[in-house]
Amino acid sequence: MRTLIPQExxxxxxxPLFPVFLLHRRPPSITFRPRAELDPSxxxxxxxxxxxxxxxxxxxxxxKPSDVPIKFTLPKSFGGGIGLGIGGGLFLGxxxxxxxxxxxxxxxRRRRVVKDADKKRILIGMSNTGGGHKASxxxxxxxxQERYGSKYEIxxxxxxxxxxxxxxxxxxxxxxxxxxxSFLWRLTYGLTxxxxxxxxxxxxxxxxxxxxxxxxLDKYQxxxxxxxxxxxxxxxLRVMRQRxxxxxxxxxxxxxxxxxxxxxxxxxFSRDATRCFVPTDFCRGLALENGLEAExxxxxGLPIRPSFSRPPPPRAAxxxxxxxxxxLPAVLLVGGGEGMGALEDxxxxxxxRLGDKCQVVVICGRNRRLQERLRARPQGPGHLLLxxxxxxxxxxxxxxxxxTIITKAGPGTIAEALICGLPILLNGNVPCQEEGNIPxxxxxxxxxxxxxxxxxxxxxxxxxxxxxxxxxxxxEEMKRRSKALGRPEAVYRIMEDLKALADEPxxxxxxxxxxxxxxxxxxxxxxxxxxxA
Length: 533
What we know:
- The chain is of the alpha/beta class.
- It contains 19 helices and 16 strands.
- The longest helix has 26 residues, at 195-220.
- The protein starts with 10 loop residues before the first strand and ends with a helix.
């Protein structure tokens, strides 16, 4: 029903910091007005404004159904009372200009990103819990930019951090604490893994965060929504389904890109997604177990930065450009974005076992103290040739220059090492979601797993220096198997499929199907016919 509102030149918007109308002295009454009738005439609008003005001033009015006064006596501290006229908007204050005031909650004005009609827009939802989710999002963004330039606008947004209210916006910050306390993380992971638990849980959380997610959709107006995080499925899909059903959003596809390699939390998989991209057969099986149809699931591999798909320069030239020795065997020791793990102990054991017969590249991430301690180690004859780096954006070059890699069982690093054909020595893992990556490496015979620094040094020595002819042959075979498992083209294949989803809504699966046709993707008549057949 259309409501009576003041004219534009009569409205002054009050800041949502303090309800200043409470300071305005009014006669001791409040008058509530019902909404205006549909399509009132100009004369009727004028008469209603006059009537509204009068009743707001005097606190009285005619007792006809469209103008029923309700009086309340207010405490002396309010200066007598407040004049209110409610007709879809709120008229607060004096008899002259009306003041339109936003009621609780008091949201500020949200700016929309100006949309170019000639460009498709893709919103990638992620959360910065570990570096892998963001790295996958950036790989997809880079692939679009490389192939299509500015024809597609890609926005990478941390929906939890930027578009949910407290305390939900602090959820990403709790991840590091939980992972460092493995018992708590295992408990959280195990309790929320069953659909019977996480579906109602996320539905209840959605009641509190749906508004913020809806505002993000309003702001970016995407032609496709992509999730690269397990907690970015159920709530955004629910919001999209409701908005498409109500007409607040055009039919829009939703795609999940799973960035875990093998073991996956079940929140990755929602039957309302248009497509679900998985990296391995193991993940495909989990998706089927969680109720996705085979047609929804596409297996291309893990999206890795396009720089890994380009042929590297000759190793000797690459080493010279990075300041490495062109002759010594090289080991890449990776500690992730935070420089986690027993990196310093591993360096000490490698030096004790290999001396100056090997060089080691240590990627410390943002751990500056570790960088300083390693750079302070003695150099020269009898000591390892150390190359200490912080956070790097050319990891593909360092991998191309080295003979093997020591790393935790992160999915992104494993996928990158496979593309580069490196034998992998795993030295740890995040509980739960990375545990399945260890048997993947061992069963495919592309590496080993060891957590003790002294045993790590012994394995590296046997691979590079002490193993004899048979071990060298096995090491070369590991390189070939590793290279065969790598999928450098995966990011481009995923990108092309996402492009198709952005260009045209699909109605076989997805939020538009669930909103308009029901979850089975069929009209009632079609569903009845299928059931009869």
